[in-house]
Amino acid sequence: MNIPPKETLALIDAVLNGTSAALLLSAVLLVRQRKYVAHACCILGALLTSTLFLVTYITSMVMYDERSSGLPPSPLRTGYYILLLTHVLLAIGMLPLIAMALLRAYRRQWDRHRRIARPAFAIWLYVSITGVVIYWMLYHLFPSLNA
Question: Is residue 100 included in any domain, yes or no?
Answer without folding.
Answer: yes
